[in-house]
Amino acid sequence: MIRSIVACSLVGWLLVAGPTAIAGGLDLHWLWDDRCAECHGHAGDFARRLERVDGELKVRHPIGDMREFLRHHYPVGHEVDALYRMLKAQAVTPPRFQAECQPCHGSAAAFARRRLALRGDEVVLAAGGRPLATALRDHGVIDTDDVPFFRAVLERVAREVHRQ
Ligand code: HEC
Ligand code: HEC
Hints:
By secondary structure, the protein is mainly alpha-helical. It folds into two domains: 2-91, no CATH class; 96-161, no CATH class. Helix content is 55%, strand content 10%. The strands form two sheets. The protein has a three-stranded antiparallel beta sheet with strand order 1-2-3. A two-stranded antiparallel ribbon has the order 4-5. The longest helix has 16 residues, at 2-17. Bound molecules: heme C (HEC) (2 copies). One heme C binds at residues 35-36, 38-40, 50-51, 59-60, 66, 70, 73-74, 76, 83.
């Protein structure tokens, strides 16, 4: 209870404070879990069920622009566009991390938060700073052909979690 009050007032403050106060923006997966998951569940599963028209996401009822809808739905302050981009990417990402990696590593967001970091534009391992791509190639359980897919997923999630 106390935790949720603290979390609410924190997000309230961050949303009001806006991007000048936080250089990079909020951890989008945290924002989703805090504000949206209660009603919509897992973000990726939700996104894959959304309607897509010409590569953009559309709201079903009332039919229309999703960014406009999100501006008036549940408050996410300055993060509408960032959240929209996250949902758009998730909508076309098959849930392979969930199926093939989660049993050992937990969710992609939790993994990216704890184990990955951004060094300039590059996504690296938080411990030691090795490039993510190298770690995936050396992993052992990941087929070489699958490395680009998992690299793209984890790099995107790392950028959604560690905003710059
Ligand atoms: C208290 C419950 C509740 C919360 C919290 C909530 N939503 Fe919703 N949302 C709904 C309901 C109800 C609908 C309309 C029915 C539906 O499409 O699921 C909806 C619809 C949507 C849609 C349109 C879905 C479609 O297929 O047209 C999107 C996108 C969406 N919500 C995103 C969000 C985001 C992002 C957040 C967090 C910032 C959020 N919602 C928080 C209840 C909620
Ligand atoms: C059978 C369990 C298992 C599965 C499945 C698995 N991993 Fe791993 N992974 C490990 C172990 C064990 C390590 C080395 C110890 C550690 O870092 O947790 C590791 C390490 C890693 C690392 C390096 C992390 C670091 O900080 O050094 C990455 C990145 C990684 N795994 C990604 C993946 C991805 C992506 C998948 C899914 C395609 C996957 N793993 C599937 C067990 C697994």
